[in-house]
Design goal:
By secondary structure, this protein is of the alpha+beta class. The protein has helices at residues 14-24, 37-42, 79-83, 87-90, 95-100, 107-112, 115-121, 127-135, 152-155, 228-235, 240-250, 261-280; strands spanning 7-10, 28-31, 50-53, 63-65, 71-74, 138-143, 146-151, 156-158, 161-162, 169-175, 181-187, 197-205, 210-218, 225-226. The chain has three domains: 7-53, Uridine Diphospho-n-acetylenolpyruvylglucosamine Reductase, domain 2; 58-175, 2-Layer Sandwich (Uridine Diphospho-n-acetylenolpyruvylglucosamine Reductase, domain 3); 182-281, Enolase-like, domain 1. Helix 10 (228-235) runs antiparallel to helix 11 (240-250) and helix 11 packs antiparallel against helix 12. The radius of gyration is 19 Å and the shape is globular. It starts with 6 loop residues before the first strand and ends with a helix. The structure holds flavin-adenine dinucleotide (FAD).
Length: 282
């Protein structure tokens, strides 16, 4: 199918893009790599009358660790850029982010698709959204009223819904340094498909004893979620198996064509334990 008719606008800078979005109102949408939006338009799930193309804004394409140790990723940075970043660009300790890229679609999608586009799209099973929730990332958004930072726990609202206003553009995502032992894993029916369930953990450990840890799940709710019940098990010195059980007990996943709620709970048990073991082996 072809998309419904629309007018195309090429942005020259962020300020011009946000001003145009404010002028055009709800009829306009930003387009970055088009890897999600174009499919939605072709299926007529989205019918924007105007597309504001920010793909040429090189100022939003950057990646690097600052003096504060935080990783700052420009919204237009592609998944492939992160996947192939040098240790100097990505910095020590951010391997969990680099390794997670291999789970995203296929190479052509990773070459065009952007970090900001994935976050703004807000798919509940997207690897970037899960990483942001796991690691307490912050989102830098710019609009006609200026710039603001939004913590990950306040950014994702529900299925494909974020805290971004229609005239705001996501310009940068800031990741604090993860604990040294972090991992993301998932299950999809075919390589490159969106995950049915994904699990990510970030363990504070001396290599033998886990002092505390973060546990996050994708594909079990309208947005990725942290699981405090499973984190409490880790903090109390419980086993990875018990942590995984606690995670499965704590959530109430949906059932759909990809799998029943019961099946998703089974996946959670397997994937949380696997993620913990992978994290420990790093
Ligand atoms: C076959 C296939 C398989 C895929 N598999 C996976 C997968 O396994 N895991 C996964 O995570 N993703 C997957 N994707 C999606 C892919 O990761 C996309 O790169 C991602 O969803 C974002 O696409 P994009 O950057 O091209 O954004 P676009 O498609 O251009 O935009 C997506 C949405 O974000 C908005 N937007 C984009 N940039 C900004 C910005 N800077 N500020 C504000 N709003 C913005 C747009 O208005 C639109 O609503 C897959 C896609 C395809 C086609």
């Amino acid at each position: 199918m072809k998309p419904a008719p629309f007018r195309y606008h090429r942005a020259r800078d962020v300020e011009g893009a946000t001003a145009l979005l404010a002028e055009l109102g709800d009829d306009a949408k930003v387009i970055a790599g088009g890897q999600s939006l174009v499919a939605m338009m072709n299926f007529r799930l989205a019918r924007p009358a105007h597309l504001v193309d920010i793909g040429g804004l090189r100022e939003l394409d950057h990646l690097g660790v600052g003096a504060d140790g935080e990783l700052r990723i420009g919204a237009l940075t592609t998944h492939h850029t992160v996947e192939t970043a040098s240790p100097r660009e990505l910095g020590a300790g951010f391997d969990v982010i680099r390794d997670a890229m291999a789970w995203i679609g296929h190479l052509p999608i990773r070459t065009r698709g952007t970090v900001g586009g994935s976050m703004a799209h807000g798919d509940a099973t997207a690897e970037w959204c899960l990483l942001a929730v796991l690691l307490d990332a912050e989102f830098v958004a710019r609009g006609p009223r200026g710039q603001r930072r939004i913590p990950a726990r306040e950014f994702f609202f529900g299925y494909y819904t974020t805290a971004l206003d229609p005239d705001e553009i996501l310009v940068e995502i800031v990741f604090p340094r993860p604990a040294p032992h972090a991992a993301l894993t998932e299950f999809a029916e075919r390589r490159g498909d969106f995950a049915i369930v994904s699990a990510a953990v970030d363990l504070d450990t001396d290599g033998r004893t886990v002092n505390s840890g973060r546990v996050a799940l994708g594909g079990v709710a309208a947005m990725p979620v942290r699981v405090p019940e499973a984190e409490a098990v880790l903090a109390a010195g419980g086993s990875f198996r018990d942590c995984a059980e606690a995670a499965a007990d704590a959530v109430d996943p949906p059932g759909d064509a990809n799998g029943s709620a019961h099946y998703r709970k089974h996946l959670i048990r397997t994937l949380v334990e696997r993620a913990c073991e992978e994290a420990m082996s790093r």
